[in-house]
């Protein structure tokens, strides 16, 4: 019996360092991924705040499969989403200053993540705000939004 328990203890002590190393590696990947996705969101808000709608759209995958759900409307395709933003926010006054907050990151796999958060526009006449859920995918260009579901607060 002592021999079995010694062997079990030895085996456990041999496995723990490998498990800890694997966990550390996974944590480093998670931190790196979240930082990369956060950088996309930071670049989007910076582009928006300088009036650069096309720069803002660089955060989305340039694909016909890109989806934006806003209100009761579904817009499909990167170019169509860009055209919608240009039409609805055709002046700096309408664009205002964009901030994102309360960001929650969820890594679904090695190439997919979701982000839940709040958006807020500060404009001279109003301050619209709401929530969003984004699905990010790792592409050849880096992490990009493939699906955006945004709602406005009442």
Describe the structure.
This protein is α+β, with helices and mostly antiparallel strands. The chain has helices spanning 2-49, 53-57, 78-88, 92-95, and strands at residues 67-70, 73-76, 97-107, 112-122, 129-139, 142-152. It has one domain (2-152): Roll (Nuclear Transport Factor 2, Chain: A). A six-stranded mixed sheet has the order 2-1-6-5-4-3, with helices on one face. It is globular and about 75 Å long. It starts with a helix and ends with a strand. The mean pLDDT is 90.
Short description:
The protein is an alpha+beta fold. Helices cover 44% and strands 34% of the residues.
Content of β-strand: 25-35%
The whole-number mean of residue pLDDT values reads 90
In helices, the fraction of residues equals 40-55%
Strand order of the largest sheet: 2-1-6-5-4-3
Number of DSSP-assigned strands: 6
Q: What is the overall shape?
A: globular
Largest sheet: 6 strands, mixed
H and E string = HHEEHHEEEE
Any idea what the CATH architecture is?
A: Roll
For the record, what CATH class applies? Alpha Beta
Spatial extent as radius of gyration:
22 Å
> Looking at CATH, which topology would you report?
Nuclear Transport Factor 2, Chain: A
Total number of distinct structural domains: 1
Determine the structural class based on helices, strands and strand pairing.
Answer: alpha+beta
Spatial gap, N to C terminus: 69 Å
- How many distinct helices? 4
């Amino acid at each position: 019996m002592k021999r079995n328990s010694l062997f079990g203890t030895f085996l456990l002590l041999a496995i723990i360092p490998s498990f800890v190393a694997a966990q550390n590696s996974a944590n480093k990947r998670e931190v790196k991924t979240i930082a990369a996705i956060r950088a996309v969101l930071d670049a989007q808000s910076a582009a928006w705040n300088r009036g650069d709608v096309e720069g803002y759209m660089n955060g989305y995958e340039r694909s016909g499969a890109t989806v934006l759900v806003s209100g009761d409307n579904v817009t499909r395709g990167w170019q169509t989403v860009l055209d919608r933003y240009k039409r609805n926010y055709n002046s700096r006054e309408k664009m205002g200053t964009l901030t994102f907050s309360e960001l929650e990151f969820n890594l679904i796999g090695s190439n997919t993540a979701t982000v839940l958060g709040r958006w807020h526009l500060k404009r001279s006449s109003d301050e619209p705000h709401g929530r969003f859920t984004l699905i990010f995918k790792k592409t050849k260009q880096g992490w990009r939004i493939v699906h955006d579901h945004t709602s406005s607060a009442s």
